[in-house]
Structure formats: structure tokens, C-alpha cells
Amino acid sequence: MSDTPTGQISIDDLENVQITIGKIVGAIEKKAEEEGIDLGPTPKPGISGLRDWDYKILSRYQPVYTPVCDQCCYCTFGKCDLTGNKEGACGINMEAHQARETLLRVITGTAAHSAHGRHILHHLIDKYGRDKPIDVGPSNLIAPNTQAVTGIKPETLGDLEEVMDYVEEQVNQLLATIHAGQEGAAIDFESKILHGGMLDHVGMEVSDLAQMSCLGMPKAETDTPLVEIGMGCIDASKPVLLVIGHNVSGVTYIMDYIHEHGLEDKIELGGLCCTAIDMTRYQVENGGEPRAKVIGTLAKELKMIRSGVPDVIVVDEQCVRADVLDEAQKLSIPVITTNEKIMYGLKNRSNDSAADIIEDLSSGKEPGALILDFDTLGEVAPELTMKMAKIRDEKGIKALPSDEELQELSAKCVQCGACELDCPANLPIMSAMTAGAASDFTQFEYLHDLCVGCGRCDQACPKDLPVLNMIEQASRKLIGEERGLVRAGRGQISDPEIREEGVNLVLGTTPGIIAMVGCSNYPGGTKDLYKVADEMLKRNYIVVMSGCSAMDLGMYKNDDGETLYEKYPAKFLAGNLINVGSCVSNSHITGTAIKVAAIFAQRNVSGNYEEIADYITNRIGAVGVAWGAYSQKAIAIGSGCNRLGIPVIVGPHGSKYRRALIGKPYDEEAWKVYDARDGSEMPIPASPEFLLTTAESIEELFPMLAKNCIRPSDNSMGRMIKLTHYMELSQKYLGHMPEDWYKFVRTETDLPLAKREELLKILEKDHGWEIDWKRKKILSGPTMKADVSAQPTNVKRLCKGEC
Amino acid sequence: MSDTPTGQISIDDLENVQITIGKIVGAIEKKAEEEGIDLGPTPKPGISGLRDWDYKILSRYQPVYTPVCDQCCYCTFGKCDLTGNKEGACGINMEAHQARETLLRVITGTAAHSAHGRHILHHLIDKYGRDKPIDVGPSNLIAPNTQAVTGIKPETLGDLEEVMDYVEEQVNQLLATIHAGQEGAAIDFESKILHGGMLDHVGMEVSDLAQMSCLGMPKAETDTPLVEIGMGCIDASKPVLLVIGHNVSGVTYIMDYIHEHGLEDKIELGGLCCTAIDMTRYQVENGGEPRAKVIGTLAKELKMIRSGVPDVIVVDEQCVRADVLDEAQKLSIPVITTNEKIMYGLKNRSNDSAADIIEDLSSGKEPGALILDFDTLGEVAPELTMKMAKIRDEKGIKALPSDEELQELSAKCVQCGACELDCPANLPIMSAMTAGAASDFTQFEYLHDLCVGCGRCDQACPKDLPVLNMIEQASRKLIGEERGLVRAGRGQISDPEIREEGVNLVLGTTPGIIAMVGCSNYPGGTKDLYKVADEMLKRNYIVVMSGCSAMDLGMYKNDDGETLYEKYPAKFLAGNLINVGSCVSNSHITGTAIKVAAIFAQRNVSGNYEEIADYITNRIGAVGVAWGAYSQKAIAIGSGCNRLGIPVIVGPHGSKYRRALIGKPYDEEAWKVYDARDGSEMPIPASPEFLLTTAESIEELFPMLAKNCIRPSDNSMGRMIKLTHYMELSQKYLGHMPEDWYKFVRTETDLPLAKREELLKILEKDHGWEIDWKRKKILSGPTMKADVSAQPTNVKRLCKGEC
Amino acid sequence: MVETTKNTQIYTTWGRKTAKPVKPAVAGKMVSKAKRPLLVIGSEIVGDEKLTDRIVAIAKKGVPVAATGHSITAFNGKDIGAKYINVHSLAHFLGDEKWGGLDGKGPYDTIVFLGHKKYYLDQVLSGLKNFTDLKTLTLERHFMQNATLSFGNIKPEVQIEALDEFIENL
Amino acid sequence: MVETTKNTQIYTTWGRKTAKPVKPAVAGKMVSKAKRPLLVIGSEIVGDEKLTDRIVAIAKKGVPVAATGHSITAFNGKDIGAKYINVHSLAHFLGDEKWGGLDGKGPYDTIVFLGHKKYYLDQVLSGLKNFTDLKTLTLERHFMQNATLSFGNIKPEVQIEALDEFIENL
To answer: Which sites bind [4Fe-4S] cluster 1 (chains A, B) (predicted)?
Structure first.
């Protein structure tokens, strides 16, 4: 713990202390000047700081609102029915209210990440001190999001506090605008959404920088270890300690205790959600061995608890089911809460002895405990697990129904349909019941992978049938086989990697980055992720994974018994598969894009967000996919990508985010930029067509991915590659040539070589283009020119002669 | 602007600079030690810091949930139907979700206040520097909420930044818990609600401390000027500049410009909502003259704009109708937005010249402008107003329908009832239409005061009848007569005042403080406020006003033509009427209670929230009334009062806050405290019966107010006074003796002298109490003893022998 | 038979569980079969003699009356044993099995509402709907979707007729 | 006449504006009277021959087909001129008077939906309901409350019958 004196302090006492007075107005500018950093125009932007940029992108990509509710219930004048864009009692109309609702969801996500960041930062500063250097591996640009947004170049943990202060101040400003009688224009709520999204990436970055620096996590390593994943990899014969959540800080004490007391072989430590990911990053840098197994995502939480296998459950924060305590109690599993965000009404035992806590929980006197003291937690969790395993074994805790019971239960179904109506995916439960009544459980088994494990079917059933347990029992063989491998999160992409690959990305010869992020609310089961990643990797895209998606991807194997993590290398190169890490590691994906602009293109990064975003918008063919996005964090992450011009596709459930940003390819005026060389206007391809949209199925997704990696900066080789994938994927998954392929053709060299003649014929015949058949050259037709030296920009002030 | 160097700075450059390193762990403790301050156990508490206290009050006052919606739509698994306390896809049940919804509303209010505070603090530090001393008048305890919560005793503006940092960090932590998969227990969401409410009072206090210190506002003055109020006091023959909102910072520049350019008589400057209140506080300390008129509350916004009277509208933040721009545009009134929270999609003209802006707005080229530069704003607003007055006059802008048109419009009504269904108060509009069709407009006139001016009737009408305009036209005589007086806000109650009145409050001889706060969503018109205040003032209660309530109270006069502000003195003494100021001045009401504990009772205040709250809970008979509470700020304020044990009553619309805290007087176990002298348990009266509840009408409210001022510390004189008012008010407004009056009787001396014999008879006859008729003494019956030296406390550790 | 079930238009929804429109005779029979009904009266009846008369008639048939707000002022001298209680408190206590009721005789099973502000009663009923198993019946002029059973939106004169029919069937 | 209007149970509400249950014949006549109808098909029909046949039949009667998701794969070789479009984009464009439609012939007035994921279509319809004046009709097996007109909750075999009747009335 730091021990610097405070209050009115004598200068003599403070030798060699570095004092940062970050709050003083103009301080960042002065510091930057002294350090020789060229500071951009918007360090620490307020709500209006990047509004002009937002208006630019919002004029191309219009908000599309699909309300989840037609009413507003914020204040006591209401509820107000806003159907048909009517105004409520405060004068707000449906459009503005929907934008406000989206803003609320976005800042909720931002707060989740940054509050996590603040918590772990407090904790690590307590433990390692404010002067602990930030270490992210071989990079100079160690905090790209932070630096681009705030202008601060953090070097120590202490430097991150000012960054968090900024994020918190801005989140508070945004939350204030949710209040009745604040912003009235949808467009300005939209700008605030983008602001909130941007802040999210700063908050995430701070979180991951802090933990990477202190917890021995891999630092831009390309050969991080492979970690066991899946419900099937848990050895239920051992005492099982299950941890759930997103914030690894307390869990590291448990891991240390297990390690220091040589209990590795005696206890099975498994994790759900991002805490699991970060457990597998803990102390594995430079070849360390993972000390825990990953069970899976939120979708496995209820299934794992209901299996009865865990002997103790420890939860921290975020994406933890609200009914963990209730569910665990039914199976005599004590629950320990370890974070102020989730306390479940349990007694605060932080100041009690481990022995007392263990006694009260193992005797069943208390169903669980709140332990905010991590030393105590470190001891209680594993010791209690070993004790509970015996007790629960002796008690003969029975979790799932037997097959006979399954048949009997099925027969009780009255086919009312309530379960199917309430099921988020409207899964065919009734027919599984019918088959089950005839002892055919295959239809229950079929539901297992499609089911997101939410348990609403149980809640809905008027006959109180334990639907989820029935599915799980019928699927126990499948579940037993759920054993895969996931690559431990590697953290950032390093500066040297950017230098190597940047050019290919900007010119398009690496066809694009597909970032598969987010949660487990999949429309068609987890395997879709595998299919998407495999297809795109085969096609030489860089596939970047994080969080829940990174986990689920590791659950499947090809015919050779290999997971994709084994099949593909893990460098930042075309055709490589990368796992950056947990939810907060998503900041490294945007960080990578910022790095390309800063390192490869040598754009100034500090406080220069607009220019960086403009660069990325026009030059980096990256598409985010949050196929199972369920959470407010996912929409926050997506909105942060959007402000940088990175398009994001969510699955069909994502329509319930109630707002998308979609352009109109038929509106030619919208698809123009300036050429920074002379400020002239130039038409650009209508790609990305959207900043945030949904796709219905992965078959639809594939061509969308390829098409929306197209960028104005593509050279002919790059455009040809991208176009080839677009046409091939469209053929393969939709069975047809895309209607708009020709709109991306600037010159004959943009056309795939093998098909060039055939395509030229189509251009002539269907689109009236003039072709010089002798030279196989296009004479007229394209609206765009191919000019690699053009410098596309949306920002007039960045053009030569401006400013 | 401060100009201290930063980065790695040389000590030599920093002579005489005071460096505060507030962030270092343990810093507050060290500083306190150095300053000889006795620091309590919870400086800057985190979410769990005061959880034990919360659990204590929540065990007596249970959350009562009345959902506004049975569904949850936070994440993409949903929407989930939670009817009947079912669990949603994340496992949350209805109870916990309703608590979460309440938390969200509370922190939205907290954010609105504290974001306002941060904005004005930035602005004032920019202008006056970090070292500007905080000046609140003749008090040592200048920031009671801040000090009780954070342990910080701020002395300068700069000191307030650390306080804001803390509030923002905590709000962000709380917002994080709104995310899916965080807290699962309703009780812990409840504790978080109280935490959020507490933070609100700190945020408000910072806001008001900063502006009071810099803007020449009255500092605990008792003779602040009376200010004109009402739509009728605006001279429409002059150019009219209307300002709307809550944050006076930009408006002061307008006032200065008008003042410096001698335009006071040429321009009519009127304000709506709390900006108006703070305008009347600006530079009026020590006898300064108010420079603006108050028009009224949010309920007058649409009416005022629709009247067509304003020539220019300037808005800042909070409680500003979202349709101001649309409405103003219809009547050629330019709108200037001046705060990032509300920008209405207008062009940012902050860097343009005043002349250019005036030209574009007066020519109608732009409907308005965003001006964040206050110097420019100061010039543009008044100059544009004068220009627009002429232009609009020449154009002959017509706002309201004529009487003939009113009749014609009325005749078009098809009596479908849509307006009445959508009207927040279900007002009888249809019959007014019927009468109006026969040229009888009295029923429209009758609606005027009942109508909250929300305009939903207009939105609902299938015939597009301008219902609100029709009401307004019919009521123009009434509106013209709306001219009253409101006392300019005085700021805090000073320490000397507390010393004088504290004893009467604690012993009950001053029967209580009635704090009438909040907004204008009244169930039965504005006059109810007048009736309540007058009745309670006559009975010697201290009535404290703030914000919108303070305004509306000034609109009515007694038979002598006096407003209550004229009728009653304004000291902090029994029977006095005080206006503390605007919305953020509400912190002075809780501040007063804290001061009683700290100054009168000499309890340590710094970081000692629980003990202070415990003191207030058991000893200070204060009741908050937010009769027209509509906003998230109001519920935040209320929750902050609740954590201090101060009960709050809201009007019937307040049931839409969806959660109350109500005790069970019949559950005897709940009404016990410890006697701190020996730790023994003692029964207490069931008062306050609730911490947050609703009343249906002011007739019901009156006895509730009197009863819920009863406290365990009342001496016999105090109890007798309180009981007298309870019985009299019950008789007067409900026509009966309250059933439970006898439960508050501990001894015959608690009984009103005049009725003592009669009441003793009832006690004997109806309740079986033993009476010694010779001595007129109660021998047995009461469950409580009267013992003035008892020290009631809810906190075991505060008892002798504990700790 | 008075038609009270037709117009069930609402201005906003709470969710999918919505009151069943009921006819006065059915409502009356239901209440007469209840073990422990309670009639809860709101302040909107104050000054309305017609409504007050009907309430007195219902009370005289043995249904205990809780008078919320200041509705008690309408029953002075009417000798129906109405007791004042705050409606928000009442709703809280109704969900508590340990509450002895207004008369100490134990919990209620069927709660009948009349004379309330619509928006206020909406909330009271929302709490009862979600957190208790009580049957709730509203005899208001508005369709109260959060009740178990409710009249539709009806005119004042229809409401009086309906109440008379309700009383006949008690 | 196939009964498609009875079971309109919903699992959650959007607000007070709710689809009118419609019978197939009425729906068919409405579409046949529309100036510019558009049939929007979702991926759920892929692999369902019975549904696909009906869609082809509708298309052959002159209703243009937008194929969303990967539903276009069901129409390869069927020569109905179906065009792929993303349904979220489509809904955005439908609200734009300047959009020329899939064929450049101008905006549509009546949008018919079939073969979509329920929860996804709920959202698409919510956008159209709130921000356009378009008539929307759903021929799904679920009651789609955000449409203008919708079938109720019906069984697969009833849906096929209903579609046949719908086609007859085109």
C-alpha cells in the first residue's frame, strides 16, 4: 500500500516523488508538450467533443429504431404510449426515446466494464502500489484507446486512475441525460451513444492493462497455452469448486492458495464466463501452466449448477445468474459472494475467521457468505470445497431426474405451449415432451445445443415440469463429450506485429479482420461460431476471438479431432486465429485498429480520435460479429467500434437492442469522401453498408462479412481478393451471385483473374459497361476510380489546404 | 484559469503551492488526523460500506413493489414476463427487478444532480480558480452531507473535485449493477438504492456550495428578497427572453450582459424551473435586487411557449421539455441550447461571432443554435431577443385560437375519450368540449390549474384538436392573474440557527419540520401546496421549501392579498417558512438534520454517516413531502432522506416510482431500539411508519404529517404537542379521531391538557388501561416509558459497553 | 343485465396478464361466495351521493369497508364501520399472512375496489397482482387491467346501474 | 373457411396497439387489392417444401418476393424473381419514400411476412408499426402483435390450409 503523506506536505519529505497534477486545466496539453508528444485537438473530449465526427457518420448510417416497448415508464407522468412516434408527457417522441433507451443500455455496459476496471485497479494498486509499471509486451503504444481518447500515455497503475476519473465523469454526464427533460433530439442521443461506446473501450483497456501488468498474464504472446474447456472436462469425482463471473481479482487468491498448499490434484477448479478466461491467463506468461479449467459461458451456468456437480460456488460480478443462490441452495451448494456488485443478501463475513465461515456454511447454518477479504476467501473457498464434497457425497445429493422419471415427467405435459412462447428462441419443447412420453429422448437431446439455458421454460410451465433438467438429463452423453481446447488469451497485438501486417490490411491483400466477440445468445446453437471462423480462416481472414465466443469456439473439433485453436496458428497474420482474452480484452481489438493508424500509418494518436477514426473508417477492413450478443456490454463494445467506423453484425436477437445504424447503398450522395490530397470529392463503395445491423443466419452472414470488409483504400489486388470472397460466399451460402457485385469494380484488375472474362461479359451485357475486348479493359462504367495514392477522408479539415 | 505546471515538475517552481494527494489510500484518515478531526468508520463508503445500517432500516421498513411494467427488456434474451414474481432469462425475479428499476431511476436522478454539479464546478474553477474559498455564511460545518459521507471537509472549490470524483465513481459502480447478471437479491438492490440516494445529496451539495460561493447568492440569509412569480407577471409588450432549465451558469452571462448594457428595462427576462430560482439568487446576497422574474415550473413550459410570448428561448439542462425546439419553431421563436446534455441537433456555433449567429437565427435560416461559449451566449441571447421581438411583432405571430375558434374546435370533438385516457390525471376533457361547443368555456378554465401541461391530449386526439391551447385560451384571465411572490432561496441553515432551534426539534416542542420539495405533477392542482403549508405553519411547524414547490407556493394569496412568504417569517424557527433554493439546495434540508446531530448534539460528523443517520432517525421529527414528484431526481432526493431515517411522502403519482418502504405498525418486534446507556431494548412508537409512501389527497396527508413527526426522543411536552396536532388534523380532515392515537401515549403528561380527562376515559374504557383517577395518572397500559434521558439507537455498537 | 364488459380499451399496458371483464351479477355472486371480502373505497367518491349510497348498501350486506384517502368523510354517521387506512399500506398488509385485518379477524381473500384515482389504483393492483394470490375486483368506471376482474370503460349512469345489479346479487 | 383468429395469446406485450386477427380470405382479398404488395420470406421456410410451394404460388399470382436471411436458397430454379435482401435493411428502406423498391418501380404499400423467426419479426414489425404508415400482414404460425393484421397462433397443418385459402382469394 502506498504511504505517501498528504494534506499540506513539506516538500522536503517528498524527495524523488513524482507529482502529477492531472486535473489542472490545460495540464494534458502541457505534459504532452514537455514530452514532445503532438497532441490532437480533442484530449478527454466531453459529450460534444466529437459530435461533428458523429454527425458525419450518422449522416451515412441512419439510426433504425425497432422498439422493444412502445411505452416510456421513466417518470411519474407516464407511462406514456409513444406508438407511431407520438410525444410523451415530457415532449419526447418515440425516436428520441428509443435512442435514449439505447444510450441507457450502452452506458450500462460501459459502467459494467469500467466499474470492473476501477475495482481491479483499486485492488492492484493496494497490492502493488501506484508506481507499478504497465507492461503489455513489446509495444510502445501501450494504451491505444486511452491515448487516442484522453491524450494520456499511461506508464504506471497510478496513471490509470486519472483515466478512470475521466471515464466515470463522462458516464455520469451521459447517465444524467437519461433523466426526463434532457436531450430532445434523437440525433444527439445517437452522438451520446457513440460517446458512451468510445468510453467503454477506454474502461475495458484500463481493466485489462492493470491485470495484465500485475497478474502474470500473457503479453502479446502468440503461443499461449491451450486450456481444457467444456462441461465434460470436469472430473466430478473430485471436489469441484466453481467460480462464475468476470472479475478475477478475488479468484487469484483462491488459485494461489491451491497452488501454495499443493491442492491442484485434490480440487477441480472450473470457471464460467470471463473469470474463467482470466483464470487461464493468470500466471501463464512465458510458458506458465494454466491452473484452471474453463466450463463455458453464461449459457452453461444453470446447467452446470443443476448438474449438482459443484461443491462450492464463488461468484464475483457480471453475467452471473441472479438465481445462483436459490439454485445452489436446493442442491446444498454453499455460495460465496466476493464483490459489492453481487451480495445476494448474504451475511458479510469479511472480518470473520475462515474456520468460523467454513463451519457455518458446511453445517448449512448459512446458505453462503459475503467475503470481501480476499485472503480469507483464498482459504475458505478451497477448504470448504473439500469439506462439502464429503458432506454432499454422504448426503447423496440427487440433481437430475432418472430416465424413468424423465418419461413420467414428459407424460405430464399438457401441450399448452407456454414453454415455447416464453423460450427466447421458441424452441420446439412440446414435441420433445410427446416423444419423451414414449421414452424417446432424442428430441430433448436435440434441444441441448440450441438451448441458451435460461430456464424460462421452467418458470412458464403450469405443471411445474423441470424442462431444463429434462433436457440436461437426456443430453448427459453429449455433455460428457463436451471437451475442447481454448487458447489462453494473449492480450494486445504488439507494435512489431502491426508493422508487419498493417500494409496488407490497408491495401486489402489480407482480406479483412473478423472479430468474433460477445455472448452466448445464439440463434442456432454454438457450432455456428465454429463454422464461421473455419470458413473465414480458410479464406485467409484474420479471425480474432474474445470472451464467450472465444470459449464456445473451442468446443468443436474437425474430423481430425482438432479444435480450430490447434488447426490455425495464432499470430497477427492472414489466416491466423487469435484469442485476445476476456470481455475487457475486447479493447485490444479496437486498439489494434488504432495501432494500424498510429504505427503503420504514423498518424498522431494522442487526443486525436477523429483522425484515427477517419483513418480506420476508410482503410481498415474489419468487421465485428457479436453473434450471440445478449448484454448491455456487447452493445457498448459495438458502439465503441462504430465510432471508429468499424461495422458490427449481431445475431437476430440483437434486433432487441432496438436500434441499428444502416446506410442506404442506393443513396449515392451518402457514399462520397474527400481526397485529402486536394479536398476533391470522390465516390466510394457502399461498404461498410452499416455500422450496426443484424443477420438472420450464418448463411446470410458469410457474404455480409466479405462484402463489408471492402474499403476505399483497397488496391486492385486487395479488391480482387475481397470481391472473390464476396462472390464465392454468396454463391456457396445463398446459391447466387450477389446483385451488387459490379458496384465494387473500379477497373478490370479488380476482377478475379479466373473469372475475369466471364464477369466482363456480364458487365457489358447487364450493366452496359464499355469493354475494350482486345485489351480486356473496362473503358467506361465504374463510378469509382482505382487510385491507390488517393487519401480518402470524411473530414474536410484533414485535406491539404484546409486549416 | 489555473496555470500550474504539470508532468515531472521541479520542486523549485512550486513555492507556496499546496499539493493535495487525495487519492492515496488512507489519505483521508491521515489528513483528518493531522487536522485533529475525529474520523468515523466509513469515510467514502463503497457500496457495502453502510449495508449493515441499510439492513437495519429495511428490516423495519419493507420494500413494497408496484410494478409499472410486468416485463423486463434490458437484454436480448428478453423481453421476459416476470408476472407473479417469475424469474426472467437471467434468473432475476420480479422483486429484484423492481428494486433494480428503482435503483436505475434513483441513480439517474443522482447523475442529473451531480453531472450538473460537475459542470458548474468545472465552469467556476475555470473562472475563479481552484483556490476560491467556499463560502456558505456563518457556519463551520459548511458541507454537512459531504463531510458525513466522505470525511472530507472542503474549504475551496478545488477540494470539491475530489468529492465529485467519489460520487462519480460510486454512481458508476451502481450503474454497473443495473447490468444483466449482477445483483440477484432485492434486499441488496435496496441497499444500493439508499447508497445512490445518499450520493445524490453529496452531489447536490457540491453543486450549490460551488455556485453559492461564486455567484453572490444569499448565504444562510433570513431576509432574502421577494421575487415576482407567475405567467401573469411577464410584460408581453417588451421583448421577452425565456430561459428554461436547472443550471444557471450560462444564464449569469446573459444577466451580466443585460446589467452591464443597461437593458434591464428593455428586456423582460423570465425563467422556468430551477434556473429561474437560481437567477433570482444571483447577486442578491446582502440586499441585492433580483434581476429576473420567475414564471413557474415544468408544468408551465408548454403553456408559456404556446402563449407565443417569448421572443427567444434559452435552455440549459434538466426538466426541459424535449419538444421545445419543435414548439418554438412553430411560433418563430429561436432556441439556444447551452449545455452538452441538451443540444437538439442544432449547429454548434460556439466559435462563431455573435453577429453571425444573430443574423442566422433572426433570418430564420437556422431554427436555433448550440452555444457553449458563455461570452457569446451572453451577448446573443439579449440582442437576439430585442431583434426578434420586432420581427415577430411585424410578422403578427398568432399563438392561441380566438374564442370563436375555440367554440368551433370544441364542436369538432367526437367524444372518443382518447384524451382522457392519455391524460396523466384522466381529467374530464370531454365534458369541457361539450360545454365549449355551446360557447361555455368555464370547464376548460376549470382544467387549467389541474392540468400539468404535458400536452399528451394533443397527441392523443384523433381529430388533432389543440386541447392544451384550448384550455389556455379559455384560461387567459386566470393566467393573467397568476402573479405572486416567492422568497429568493437562502441557502443553508447556519450553525448558529441550529444551536438555537436544535433542542426544540429533538425534544419535539417544535412539532416538526415539513420539507415540501419536488416537482409539479400534482394530483389536484397547485393550490394544495398552499393549503398544506399554511395549515402546518399555523401549527408552528417549520416549513422548508425548495425548487418547484417553492415556486408554486408563491402563486397564491390569502384574503389579505398576502402570499405565505409575506405572511410568515423566514428564520429557522417554529412557525417559519423557509425557501432554501433550487433543486440542488435540497441538500441543505438533509444538511440541516445532519447539523442538528453534529452541532446541537455534538456527534462526530466526518465519515460517521451511520451514527448521524441513527441520531436523525430517532430524534428529528422531519417529514419530506414531494407532492408533485415526477422526476428521477425527486426519488433520488427521497432515497437520500430515507438513508438518514427521514420519511418522505409523495403524491399518488409517486406510486409510479414502483417501490415504497412501509413498516408494519402491528408487528411489535419491528418497533424496538436499544437504549445506548446500557444496550437494553426499548419499544418505540411506530413513527415514522414508513420511509417512503404515497398519500391520496392532502386531506389524508395532514394527519400523516403530524403523526410521522413523532420520535422516541420527544419529551412529554413535545409528544403532547405532536399528538394534539395529529388528533386535530385527523378530526379536521378525516372527521374522526385516529384509531391509533393511544399507541403514542406513554404517560398522562403526553396527553393534551384540555382533553386529558376525556382521553383518559377512553383509554380506560376502550383500551383497558388502569387509571388512578385521583391523581389522573396512568397506572398501566402503555408499552413505552417516557424517559427523556434514554438514548434510543438502532446501532448496537453505539451502546455503552459495546466496541 | 347491465353490459359492463365491452369497452376494455386501455391507454397503456403493464404486461400480458390482464383483467377479465366481468358483468355485475357475476361479480356480485363472486363476492357473496368469498370467505373474507373487503371493499376498499377511494377519495373520488367524496361528494358523490349516488356512489356513496351504493357503498353503504354493499357494506350493509356485510362486506367490511376500508376507507382510503379521505373517503372516510363520506361515511360519517352512516354506521357502516368503515375504517381509515392508507391504500399503499393496505396493499402491503394484504400480502402479509400475519396481518389480522382491519378488525383482527384475519386475512382477506377477495378485494373489491371502488372510487379510486385510476392511475393510483393501477399501481396498487399491480402490486397485488404480482405479489399476492388475492382475487381483486374493480367496480370502477375504467377498465382496470391489473385487477383479476374488472368492469370495462363505462359511463357514470351505467356504473350506477351496474352497482345496483351487483348489490342485488350479493 | 379456416379459423385463424382465435388464439391470440402473446408472451409479452409491446404496448397498446396490437394486430387485428385476420382470416385467410380477408387477408387474401386485402393483398389482391393492394397497389404494391411485397411478400417478405424468412429463412425458417428453408427445407419446408409445403411452405415453399405456397410461396411460389403466391409469387406466381404476381406478388413480388423479398427473400431475407438465406431463404433465397429455397427458390433456386423456381423462377419467381425473388431477390435477396437483409430484413433489417429492408425495413429501413421500406420507410424511405425515395427508395425505388427491389425492382426500381417505387415504394410498397402492403407488406406480407412469412417464414421468420418470431422474435426477430416482432422487432422488424415494431419498427414498421411505429415509424411508417405501411400495412403489414403476417401469415405466420404465431400471432404477431406488432403487425397490422395477423393470423393467431395456429398449428402447422392449419397454416397450410390457411395459406391455400389465402392464395385462392388473391
So the answer is: 69, 73
Q: At what angle do helices C156-168 and C49-60 cross, to 10 degrees?
A: 10
What is the Cα–Cα distance from A550 to A486, expressed in whole angstroms? 7
Using DSSP's 3-state secondary structure scheme, residue A308 falls into: coil
Confidence (pLDDT) at B803: 60
Contacts of D21 (CB under 8 A, 6+ apart): D4, D5, D6, D8, D143, D149, D150, D151, D152
The answer to whether residue B28 is domain-embedded is no
CB distance B115–A172 less than 8 Å? Answer: yes
Contact D84 A738 (CB under 8 A): yes
In a domain, C143, yes or no: yes
Interface of A with C in 60-99 (CB under 8 A): 71, 78-81
Q: Is A296 helix (H, G, I), strand (E, B) or coil?
A: strand
Contact, A43 vs A607, CB < 8 A?
yes
The pair phi, psi for residue B168, each rounded to 5°, is: -65, -40
Q: Which residues of D touch A94 (CB under 8 A)?
A: 130-131
Q: What are phi and psi of C38, to 5 degrees?
A: -140, 130
What domain range is D142 assigned to?
Answer: 20-169
In a domain, C11, yes or no: no
| DSSP state, residue A600 | I
Task: Calculate mean pLDDT across residues B520-530.
Answer: 94
Pick out the residues of the known binding site of A for [4Fe-4S] cluster.
Answer: 69, 72-73, 75, 80, 90, 413, 416, 419, 423, 451, 454, 457, 461
DSSP B769: -
Residue numbers in A near C11 (CB within 8 A): 81
Total domains, chain D: 1
Chain D residues in contact with B71 by the CB 8 A cut-off are 12-13
CATH number of the domain at B75, please. 1.10.8.190
Mean pLDDT of A697-709: 98
Asked if pLDDT for residue B778 goes beyond 50, the answer is: yes
CATH of residue B381's domain is 3.40.50.2030
Total of domains in chain A: 4
User: How much of chain B exceeds pLDDT 90, in percent?
Assistant: 93
One domain for residues A678 and A739 = yes
Which of these, B591, B584, B544, B548, lies nearest to B109 by C-alpha position? B584
pLDDT at residue D6 in the model? 83
pTM of the model: 0.96
**Chain C CB contacts of B694 below 8 Å:** 86-88, 120
In 3D space, the residue among B254, B236, B492 whose CA is nearest the CA of residue B382 turns out to be B254
Q: Which residues of A are annotated as a binding site?
A: 69, 72-73, 75, 80, 90, 113, 246, 274, 319, 413, 416, 419, 423, 451, 454, 457, 461, 519, 548, 583
- Phi, then psi, of B666 in degrees rounded to 5: -80, -10
**Neighboring chain D residues of B78 at a CB cutoff of 8 Å:** 12
Cβ neighbour number for residue B392 with a 10 Å cutoff: 22
Q: Where are the alpha helices (DSSP H) in B215-273?
A: 249-260
B417 and B377 fall within a common domain: no
Closest-CA distance of chain B to residue D13, Å? 8
The closest CB to that of D72, out of A70, A85, A735, belongs to: A735
Of C11, C15, C16, the CB nearest to D16: C11
Residue B355 C-alpha from the chain's centroid: 39
Nearest residue, CB atoms, D88 vs list A85, A655, A736? A655
What residues 13-32 of chain C have any CB closer than 8 A to a CB of chain A? Answer: 13
For residue B144, give its domain range. 33-213
Average pLDDT over residues A233-252: 97
* Dist CA B411 CA A197 (whole Å): 52
* ipTM surpasses cut 0.90: yes
Radius of gyration of chain B (CA): 27
* Model pLDDT for residues B717-739, shown as the tens digit of each residue: 999 999 999 999 999 999 999 99
Q: Which of C18, C57, C17, C25 is nearest to C41 (CA)?
A: C57
